[in-house]
Amino acid sequence: EVQLVESGGGLVQPGGSLRLSCAASGFTFRVYTMSWVRQAPGKGLEWVSAISADGDVPSYTDSVKGRFTISRDNTKNTLYLQMHSLRPEDTAVYYCAKYKDAFRFYFNNSDANYRYDAWGRGTQVTVSS
Hints:
By secondary structure, the protein is mostly beta strands. It has strands spanning 3-7, 10-12, 18-25, 34-39, 45-51, 58-60, 68-73, 78-83, 92-99, 116-119, 123-127.
């Protein structure tokens, strides 16, 4: 059974940092692109970042470029999102998601939730003073 379990969320002041983790199990992690997707209160899902199966190619939505860094450790089956310079508008539930197709990667994953076949339960990030 595929499982994705996020952790690392919390309450942080504007300008602060957090590191999210997503522990994966039940599939061959190293052959799938992984993404972070978030949902702000009262809004739809928003793609944040993706990383290729080998970890060599990251991509980001414009609003987080230069502030967030996605990475993965294929030896630990874990996906990460390092977030710096957090803003109140980053407040959301953050989900990790697994691509449906092995070895496939798309640079832009906006409005492309059909590309995923597994999601975690999410971790809450709240940016507030």
